[in-house]
Amino acid sequence: MIYREAGDFKTSYAKDQQTFPIAFDRWGYFITLAFAFLVVPFIINDYWINAVVLPFLIYAIAAIGLNILTGYCGQVSLGSGGFMAVGAYAAYKLMTGFPDLNIVFVIFLSGGVTALVGMLFGLPSLRIKGFYLAVATLAAQFFLVWLFNKVPWFYNYSASGQISAPERSIFGYAVTGANALPAVSYLFCLCFVVILAWAARNLTRGANGRKWMAIRDMDIAAEIIGVNPLKTKLTAFGVSSFYIGIAGAMLFAVYLGAAEVGEAFGISKSFLILFMVIIGGLGSIFGSFAGAAFMVLMPVLLKNVMVGQLGWPTDMAAHFEFVIVGGLIVLFLIVEPHGLAQLWRLAKEKLRLWPFPH
Amino acid sequence: MSANFYFGVEVFLNGLMAGVMYSLVALGFVLIFKASGIFNYAQGVMALFAALTLVGFQNGQIPFAHLINAIFGTDLHHFGWHMPAFLAILCALGVMILFAFLVERYILKHLVNQEPIILFMATIGLAYFMEGFGDLMWGSDIKKLDVGIPQGGNIWLEENTAFLGGEDFYGFYLDNLDIWATVLAAILVTSLVLFSQYTKTGRALRAVADDHQAALSVGISLRSIWVIVWSIAGFVALVAGIMWGSKSGVQFSLSLIALKALPVLMLGGFTSIPGAIIGGLIIGVGEKMFEFLIGAPFLGGATENWFAYMLALLFLVFRPQGLFGEKIIERV
């Protein structure tokens, strides 16, 4: 009854085309934002921030990035882990090479570096399509991880081969390094997430997004109506890698603090992000958030139930997690191939008509 | 000839052998892809699962022992028998056929007519499921697999080739296991080709591979064909699992050979059985030679991790359908 557009008259094109045309949605969005910025930092404890909220925010950025490439432009990539590693190592080199550079610029610049690398590995996508491309992106994954392992310049010749983030601060508050307060890291990540999600949402409904979707739906037809496949695919690879690089830089600098490339950015990370995108819903920004939340929360929940409540050994709980994640993915694809985002859309559709059935 | 040249030849031969091992996994992919258009990511995990099941039967392990112990507080481990290898292989094959049946019944049936990418992702989910399931069922410790295949260097070959090189050359070192794998792979491929050319079921398989709808319209049951194909792929996975398991122990990393089989497939073409073999040989030789000639001396080693993918990537840019794949024709 409250969730509907009837009676909500639009008097300008700008209003008609806004992201949330329904007032209820719009208010929900603003209230969520206000809650996330003004209330959460004061009520949340360190465990929740470190175990759930920070990974959720960072993976949400990565999932948006992969969603732009896979969901909007239809190019399946299994190289996200490698691109995250590029972001992380770029951030590390920038932080140690230019100690005075502001951390915000560091993160955006490492996104830019990753975008370049991503476009380089996106070049073959012109000739290679579908599965072949998915496998070709594995080349990026394995090559990049090997590169960061073997070339000492990338980890500043440190004996352990690890990279660790030095302390950097904004407005006098440390956001990276050991002294960073969890609430500060949280707000820092949240700002990035909000800005990037807003940018992604508007990119995908603009001219670029439409070109991406045209290429996704049928690339030859898109080419015939005048979409340049080279430019379109490369922009998708670039933008997507930009997001994934930022996520990698933040995962390393803000969340992990120290990282070893094979462990932190291995092939399993690529799959994790791909799962987030599938479960959340291909081609939906909201879906990226939903998928990230699901994939971050579920292991925590399962672990709490199986290890905490039932007292099972942790390795068995880990195996169960595999079984459940795998089973859920198959189940999702059978029941709802379009993911959580589609469930959300259906729920809204029902809500619009409520209390009438039709 | 210098000893270095002979070392190079030895690396080449070992590369061929490694390539055969990759081909064994790639074969399973090709079979399923041809018959159902599904790119089965779970093939590697199937090999792991088959090997785990085989070891489990051989040692008389109780399935889900850990789980049962954790829930009921019991202390079960083994039935206390020791099954002969042949019987255990038959039992493992039975399990793989049952698995094929279940996959068709509970997954494929519901995903008919979905886009290929959805099916691909479903098999990734299946791979995760089986990985956890196999570990739950048989435990996750590294197991030794021994079905009576001889292992270790082939002494006959080593002694008879030692005269070729100088004083610091002791003859070619080839692992017996690899030689066996080559023989087995040859038998497997021959019998698969014979099966698909000269039996009624084989003809039905080829019909389905050509055109699903046309096959349906002449009365071929798609569902039973799928069960058959997945069973054969399960059998190939079992063979691959036995060979890889005997070589490096049955453990989690076995499932990662699937990733190694992917560039093999791309090089050979997804739809060609000879392509899988030749692609495997090229990748095996290529990565070993690259490591020997360029990787180890100049790049710091461990180039085997990515060389195969890069080779496949560069190759595909020039020939997108692989060496023997059907020409990709796109229509609007």
Topology (SSEs and partners):
The complex is a heterodimer of chains A (358) and B (332).
Chain A lengths: L12 H4 L6 H21 L2 H27 L7 H18 L5 H20 L7 H21 L12 E2 L4 E2 L2 E2 L7 H23 L2 H11 L1 H6 L4 H28 L1 E2 L1 H4 L2 H14 L4 H25 L4 H22 L3 H15 L5
Antiparallel strand pairs in A: 1-4, 2-3
Helix pairs in contact in A: 2-7, 3-7, 3-8, 3-10, 3-12, 3-13, 4-5, 4-6, 4-10, 5-10, 8-10, 12-13, 13-14, 13-15
Chain B lengths: L2 H34 L6 H17 L5 H8 L12 H22 L9 H23 L16 H7 L14 H23 L1 H11 L1 H6 L4 H27 L8 H12 L4 H27 L4 H15 L14
Which characteristics define this entry?
heterodimer; A: 358 residues; mainly alpha; two-stranded antiparallel ribbon; B: 332 residues; ABC transporter involved in vitamin B12 uptake, BtuC; 13 helices
What would you note in describing this structure?
Chain A: It is a multi-pass membrane protein. Chain A: Its main location: membrane. Chain A: It is found in: Cell membrane. Chain A: InterPro entries: ABC_transp_permease (IPR001851), LivM-like (IPR043428). Chain A: The chain crosses the membrane at residues 27-44, 50-69, 76-95, 101-123, 130-148, 183-200, 236-259, 271-296, 316-335. The complex is a heterodimer of chains A (358) and B (332). Chain A is an all-alpha fold and 358 residues long. Chain A has a domain at 36-263. Chain A has helices at 13-16, 23-43, 46-72, 80-97, 103-122, 130-150, 182-204, 207-217, 219-224, 229-256, 261-264, 267-280, 285-309, 314-335, 339-353; strands at residues 163-164, 169-170, 173-174, 258-259. A two-stranded antiparallel sheet of chain A has the order 1-4. In chain A, strand 2 (169-170) and strand 3 (173-174) form a beta hairpin. In chain A, helix 3 crosses helix 8 (207-217), helix 5 (103-122) packs across helix 10 (229-256) and helix 13 (285-309) runs antiparallel to helix 14. The longest helix of chain A has 28 residues, at 229-256. The two termini of chain A are 13 Å apart. Chain B is an all-alpha fold and 332 residues long. Chain B has a single domain (3-318), classed as ABC transporter involved in vitamin B12 uptake, BtuC (Orthogonal Bundle), CATH 1.10.3470. In chain B, 70% of the residues lie in helices and 0% in strands. Chain B contains 13 helices and no strands. Chain B has helices at 3-36, 43-59, 65-72, 85-106, 116-138, 155-161, 176-198, 200-210, 212-217, 222-248, 257-268, 273-299, 304-318. Chain B is globular, with a radius of gyration of 21 Å. In chain B, 46% of the residues are buried. The model of chain B has no long low-confidence stretch (mean pLDDT 81). Classes of the chains: A mainly alpha (358), B mainly alpha (332). Chains A and B meet through helix 6, helix 9, helix 12 and helix 14 of A and helix 3, helix 5, helix 11 and helix 13 of B.
